[in-house]
Amino acid sequence: MEGFLEGVASFSEQLWGYPLIAILLFSGIFMTVKLGFIQFRHPIYIFKQTFGSIFKKPKGEGTVTPFQALTSALSSTVGAANIVGVPAAIMFGGPGAVFWMWVIALIGMSLKFSESALAVHYREKNEKGEFVGGPMYYMTKGLGMKWLGIWFSFALMLELIPSIMVQGNSLSSTVEESFNIPALWTGIAVAVIVGIIVFGGIKRIGQVTQVFIPFMALVYVGGALVILFMNLNMLPEFFNLIFSNAFSPAPVVGGFAGAAIVDVIRWGFARGLYSNEAGLGTAPMAHAAAQTDHPVRQAFWSIAGIVVDTLVICTATAFVVLSSGVWTGENAMENSSALTTIAFESYFGTFGSILVTVSLIFFVLSTILVIIFYGAKQAEFLFGLKASYAIQFVYLAAIVFGAVGAAEVIWGFLDIMLAAILIPNLIAVLLLSNKVKELKHEFFTSDEYYLKDIRKK
Fold first, then answer.
1. Helices 295-306 + 97-121 axis angle, to 10
2. H or E, element range at 132
């Protein structure tokens, strides 16, 4: 059994090395070119249509506000990857890996834009009158390939069980280590809290996340900004470290063992993709429920999501880790997952450690909250609305089992199952790329949308 699990882990590592990174890179570049470099040509307009319209009444019909849809989607992506994943990329790929995280974030915007536009365009109403959508719907209605939608849905529904167990384990371990509360108690408490929220549907989830996510981001990024202002003189050195190592092997520095150029790029791309989930097809399920008058207008929010997740939060983590110098410490390579905590602690003492711990707890809790919603949508698509309630009980039980360490045996399968979701979704997005281009052209040439907006200036 042990040999089998080692084989699974080895295959998973190879799969999520160059093969899938190359596929994602190609898909992102293809959609960026196909859509006329939309994320680079209209950044100010996109900002105005997203963060600039938070307090305006949403246009069109939908179940939740566009901002609630964004915060729900961000709840899934903003998590442990932002706190633990960034220092891992730095330790195994060097400071230059941060540059490649930025690159894949910018390219990935076109994929996430495409997914969300398709999700809104092909969405429908369920028995409760709520808007539902996502890859399984655009595979079925857009491509006429229901079998592909079933493949995606079934794979995601199953993948979320060990994923939730891992998240539950991460949360309970953090609480036990920091506050000495038994893991089982934490697991039960989290399952009860999450259950109360998720059974309220996307409306209640949206109401919670629109408070949760800004609070989490303000606390964590706020702490990083304080450190930035304390060390403004280190900003040139920060960027110099990143850019000078982005295109060359990272040299040995203190406890940092150095990295070849291929590792610099690979780790930057891999951690960036893990963080923002571009191409996985999960975030579009949240965006599909949003009030909007056109799919493209809501798709702008998915671009905004990558800005927050990778360009802001991951960069904040990178600055704290690099400016503190903890990445060159003697045991940094063996203790990469704790580097962010150590870095904050070096600036703020015990308060810094508590700040990171509390942030991680909120990040993981919100992730569990939203991925249970995603799983319920798969069960609803496959078997109907009643099945979505049943699977939610399975997911809540998974939190408790995960809290006491039951997920360890199946951790190695997680990445393989993620690939089983990613590949069909990328196939669908590429096959429907003409539809995305058509929707984008319609929005930017119609007097009802873009042209009307710019005349209001």
1. 160
2. strand 131-132
Is residue 212 situated within a structural domain?
Answer: yes
Q: Which domain holds residue 314?
A: 11-46+63-455
The most confident of the ranges 91-105, 198-212, 269-283 is 91-105
pTM, rounded to two decimals: 0.87
> What are the tokens at 351?
């308060």
288 in Cβ contact with 123 (< 8 Å): yes
Distance in angstroms (rounded) separating the CA atoms of residues 154 and 378: 7
169: nearest Cα among 409, 449, 384 = 409
| Residue 152: C-alpha distances to residues 12, 26, 281, 336, 375 (Å) | 19, 21, 9, 33, 11
Burial of 335 (0-12, 13-18, 19+ CB in 10 A): middle
Is 336 inside a domain boundary?
Answer: yes
Residue 257 has pLDDT above 60, yes or no: no
For residue 264, report the phi and psi dihedrals to the nearest 5 degrees.
Answer: -60, -50
Closest CA to 290 of 48, 53, 79: 53
C-alpha dihedral sign at 382, 387, 388, 390:
negative
What's the CATH code of the domain at 337? Answer: 1.20.1740
Least confident of 175-179, 236-240, 447-451: 175-179
User: Taking a C-beta distance cutoff of 8 angstroms, is the pair 343, 252 a contact?
Assistant: no
User: Is residue 3, in this structure, part of any structural domain at all?
Assistant: no
**Which of these, 343, 111, 127, lies nearest to 227 by C-alpha position?**
343
Rounded to the nearest 10°, the torsion over CA 21, 39, 283, 118 is: -100
Q: Report how far residue 251's alpha carbon sits from residue 260's, in angstroms, rounded to the nearest whole number.
A: 9
Phi-psi category of residue 422: left, alpha or beta, with phi > 0 → left and psi -120 to 50 → alpha:
alpha
